[in-house]
Amino acid sequence: xxxxxxxxxxxxxxxxxxxxxxxxxxxxxxxxxxxxxxxxxxxxxxxxxxxxxxxxxxxxxxxxxxxxxxxxxxxxxxxxxxxxxxxxxxxxxxxxxxxxxxxxxxxxxxxxxxxxxxxxxxxxxxxx
Length: 128
Ligand code: AMP
What we know:
5 strands; HIT family, subunit A; 3 helices; alpha+beta; binds adenosine monophosphate; five-stranded antiparallel β-sheet; single chain
């Protein structure tokens, strides 16, 4: 499986190495959840695997079952800790250029605490 090359200098790699601070919400053996520095809603938490994976596909294909399980559990832990279950929330994973991924270490945004608005604008085939 061809994986995107992992950049050890990306900001989340530095967070995982403890080189820059983060506001941790929860952590387990294989995943870390911390608050987004520029929140889009009252709750905006990023969940990342601790392994070196750039995209969702990389993580899905090359992560272990234990890593997958720990990642999903961390997302659920955030939902519960932030009290999002009842009113709902949105999970977002941006991948690559078309997905507008800014940080090349796979992360899931957990966004809630308010109505987060419509999903994406409807696609107009006449637009580029
Ligand atoms: P994406 O566009 O999906 O790659 O999202 C990257 C996210 O990382 C953005 O929402 C940023 O606000 C967030 N971010 C960037 N640097 C940090 C940081 N040092 N701590 C927490 N969140 C960050």
